[in-house]
Amino acid sequence: ADPGSSPVVVGEYAYVQGEKRLACVDLVTGDTVWNTTLDLGRPRYTSPVACGDKVFYTYENVLCFAAGEKDFTPLYTGKVGTDGLLAEESFFREQLNLDELEKTAEGQKEAQRLTRETFDKNQPLACASPAFADGRLVLRLKDRIVCYDLRSK
Known about the structure:
The protein is α+β, with helices and mostly antiparallel strands and 153 residues long. The protein has one domain: YVTN repeat-like/Quinoprotein amine dehydrogenase (Methylamine Dehydrogenase, Chain H, 7 Propeller), CATH 2.130.10.10. The protein contains 3 helices and 12 strands.
């Protein structure tokens, strides 16, 4: 692990991020249960947090994966839009009409502009770990803090 990331423990497993890797370690045996490579442009040294049987890690996106699994099982990968909405990238691609725009060279430039405008200022801050409080996920973005109520209704 890198010097800036702390593991999170859920049951008998520790989850830790380092460089572009995310790993699950069995605390009883010390064995690596699984590890995966994250699609990171440059590693972010935030620490994962857990809520129940889910682990959250933030970088350019918000990643949620299952704790206690024998394999890496991602449950959700989301981005934060300009209005603070946390949703999967496919939602934003549809809202911004990116698939249609990307069909032409000029449209590709516009799609890149829209993508930068929508996401660049809304990524989780590079060195800020997410937090949980009473079933709410709290994220520090570049220019504000957002809170998502993840409690079951």
